[in-house]
From TrEMBL:
<comment type="similarity">
    <text>Belongs to the LanC-like protein family.</text>
</comment>
<dbReference type="GO" id="GO:0031179">
    <property type="term" value="P:peptide modification"/>
</dbReference>
<dbReference type="Pfam" id="PF05147">
    <property type="entry name" value="LANC_like"/>
</dbReference>
<keyword id="KW-0479">Metal-binding</keyword>
<keyword id="KW-0862">Zinc</keyword>
<dbReference type="InterPro" id="IPR012341">
    <property type="entry name" value="6hp_glycosidase-like_sf"/>
</dbReference>
<dbReference type="GO" id="GO:0005886">
    <property type="term" value="C:plasma membrane"/>
</dbReference>
<dbReference type="InterPro" id="IPR020464">
    <property type="entry name" value="LanC-like_prot_euk"/>
</dbReference>
<dbReference type="InterPro" id="IPR007822">
    <property type="entry name" value="LANC-like"/>
</dbReference>
<feature type="binding site">
    <location>
        <position position="300"/>
    </location>
    <ligand>
        <name>Zn(2+)</name>
    </ligand>
</feature>
<feature type="binding site">
    <location>
        <position position="345"/>
    </location>
    <ligand>
        <name>Zn(2+)</name>
    </ligand>
</feature>
<protein>
    <recommendedName>
        <fullName>LanC-like protein 2</fullName>
    </recommendedName>
</protein>
<feature type="binding site">
    <location>
        <position position="346"/>
    </location>
    <ligand>
        <name>Zn(2+)</name>
    </ligand>
</feature>
<dbReference type="GO" id="GO:0046872">
    <property type="term" value="F:metal ion binding"/>
</dbReference>
<dbReference type="GO" id="GO:0005975">
    <property type="term" value="P:carbohydrate metabolic process"/>
</dbReference>
Length: 427
C-alpha cells in the first residue's frame, strides 16, 4: 500500500511565525528540503502564504492556458470538464472569482464557445449510450451549457446567458439513465444546483428537480431489496461506495434537496451502513463486491470523497455520529492521503479538501493547518517530484481532475479557505 502514497512526515501542527520574512526563505532554504517545507508551514497565513499561493495559482493557470488552448491552435478535442478543455475554462472562472480579473472571464467564455461547438459536432457521431452521458457537469454537454450561462451572467451578457440556459434545458434524462454523479441523475441534479446558486434560486424549478430526486430514491430502494443498505445503486455492474460512481456521491447530492421523513431515514441509514462496514483502518471499500482490499484513498473511491459526504450529513442533519465518522476518515487521509498523484480525483489536490470541509464546518484551526500542509507539500515539492517521476502528473497532465489544473484550483481556494468547495461536488 505504501507505494501509493508518500509517508506523511509533516508535524501534526506548526504554529505561524509572524517574524518570518518570505524572501529570507528563498535565500536560505533550498526548495524541496525539509527546512523549506517547514518554513512554508510557518509563514503567516493571511498576510504572506495566501499571497504566495495566489501568485503560484496564477502562474499555473497561465501555463495551463498555453498548453490546453494556445498550443492546440484553439482546437478542442475533449470538451469535458473532467479531462478536457472545459476544465481550463472552469479554472479561469475560479481565477476570476478570486482576482476579479475580467480578462480571465473573457477567455473563459471564449473557450466555452469552442467547447460548445466541439460538443455539438461530436454529438452527431455519438452512440445512444454516449448521448446518455451528456447530462452531467463533469463529463457531459450539460457542463458546457451551465458554465456558459453562469459566465455570461457575470459578464452581464443576458442574451448569451439565455442561449446557454435554453441549451441546458433541452437536455433530457431518459428512463434508463444511471443515478451516479459522473454520468447520471445525481450529476444532472448537481448541474441544476450550480445554476440555481449563480443565477437564482428558481432558475431550474424545484418541482422538476424533485421528480428526479424521487426517481433516484425509487431506484435505490428497488435495488436495496438484496439487503444491507437501505439504498443501493449499480453502475457498470458494480455497487460502488465512493463519490464518483457510488453511494457517497448520490447521497451528497440528495442532501441538497428537501426530502420526506422516510427519505431522510433512508439517506441516514445508507450512510450508517457505510460507517458500520468500513475497514478497521477507518477507510472505506471500493464497492460492495470488493470489500477486502483496503488500498484506495482517493476522492473518487475511498475515505476522502466519503468524508466530504459525511461532513455534509453532519451539517444537514446535525448528528454527531456523522461528524465523528468524518473526522475519523480525515485521519485516514492525513496518514495515507499524501498520494503519489497530483490531481483532484485521485491525488493530493483533491484530498486536501477533506480538511477544508471540516475546517469550514467546525472552525478547528488544526484542519486548516492540515489543508495548508497538503497544499504546501505540493507548492514546495510537487514540480520537483513530477519531474523526477516520483509523482504522477496524470494521464491528462494539464486537466482539472487528473492534472495540475486541479492543483491550481486548490491554490486559488486556499486564498479564501472558508469559501473553498471541492469543485463539482460541494456546491
Amino acid at each position: 500500500m505504501a507505494d501509493r502514497y508518500f509517508r506523511n512526515e509533516m508535524p501534526d501542527f506548526v504554529p505561524e511565525n509572524q517574524n518570518i520574512i518570505e524572501e529570507e526563505r528563498i535565500e536560505i532554504h533550498r526548495q524541496g528540503t525539509e527546512d523549506s517545507l517547514l518554513r512554508l508551514l510557518s509563514l503567516p497565513y493571511p498576510t504572506v502564504l495566501s499571497h504566495r499561493l495566489q501568485r503560484s495559482a496564477i502562474d499555473l493557470k497561465e501555463t495551463i492556458v498555453v498548453q490546453t488552448w494556445g498550443l492546440t491552435g484553439q482546437r478542442v478535442e475533449d470538451f469535458t470538464l473532467y479531462t478536457g478543455t472545459l476544465g481550463t475554462a472552469f479554472l479561469l472562472f475560479k481565477s476570476f472569482q478570486v482576482t476579479h480579473n475580467k480578462n480571465d472571464l473573457n477567455l473563459c467564455l471564449e473557450i466555452i464557445k469552442a467547447c460548445d461547438s466541439s460538443s455539438s459536432q461530436s454529438r452527431e457521431s455519438l452512440s445512444e449510450d454516449d448521448i446518455h452521458m451528456e447530462v452531467t457537469f463533469m463529463c457531459g454537454r450539460a457542463g458546457v451549457s451551465a458554465l456558459g450561462a453562469v459566465a455570461a451572467k457575470y459578464m452581464g451578457d443576458d442574451q448569451l446567458l439565455n442561449h446557454y440556459l435554453d441549451q441546458f434545458k433541452e437536455i433530457k434524462l431518459s428512463d434508463d439513465h444511471s443515478n451516479e454523479l459522473f454520468h447520471g441523475r445525481a450529476g444532472y441534479l448537481w448541474t441544476c444546483l450550480f445554476l440555481n446558486k449563480h443565477l437564482g434560486k428558481d432558475t431550474i424549478p424545484s418541482t422538476s428537480m424533485g421528480a428526479i430526486v424521487r426517481e433516484i430514491i425509487k431506484n435505490g430502494r428497488k435495488l436495496s431489496k438484496s439487503g444491507g443498505s437501505p439504498l443501493w445503486f449499480e453502475f457498470a455492474g458494480h455497487r460502488y461506495w465512493g463519490a464518483a460512481h457510488g453511494l457517497a456521491g448520490i447521497m451528497h447530492v440528495l442532501m441538497d434537496f428537501e426530502l420526506k421523513s422516510d427519505e431522510i431515514e433512508d439517506v441516514k441509514g445508507t450512510l450508517r451502513y457505510m460507517i458500520e462496514n468500513r475497514f478497521p483502518s477507518g477507510n472505506y471499500p471500493y464497492s460492495e463486491e470488493d470489500k477486502s482490499r483496503d488500498v484506495i484513498v482517493h476522492w473518487c473511491h475511498g475515505a476522502p470523497g466519503i468524508a466530504l459526504t459525511l461532513v455534509k450529513a453532519a451539517e444537514v442533519f446535525g448528528d454527531k455520529e456523522f461528524l465523528e465518522a468524518a473526522m475519523n476518515a480525515a485521519e485516514v487521509v492525513w496518514n495515507r492521503g499524501l498520494l503519489k498523484k497530483v490531481g483532484l480525483c485521485h491525488g493530493i489536490s483533491g484530498n486536501a479538501y477533506v480538511f477544508l470541509s471540516l475546517y469550514r464546518l467546525t472552525g478547528v484551526v488544526e484542519y486548516l493547518y492540515r489543508a495548508k500542509a497538503f497544499t504546501c507539500f505540493l507548492l514546495d515539492r510537487g514540480h520537483m517530484l513530477m519531474l523526477r517521476g516520483d509523482m504522477h502528473g496524470g494521464d491528462n497532465p494539464f486537466s482539472l481532475f487528473e492534472g495540475i489544473a486541479g492543483m491550481a484550483y486548490l491554490f486559488f481556494d486556499m486564498v479564501q479557505p472558508k469559501n473553498a468547495r471541492f469543485p463539482c461536488y460541494e456546491v
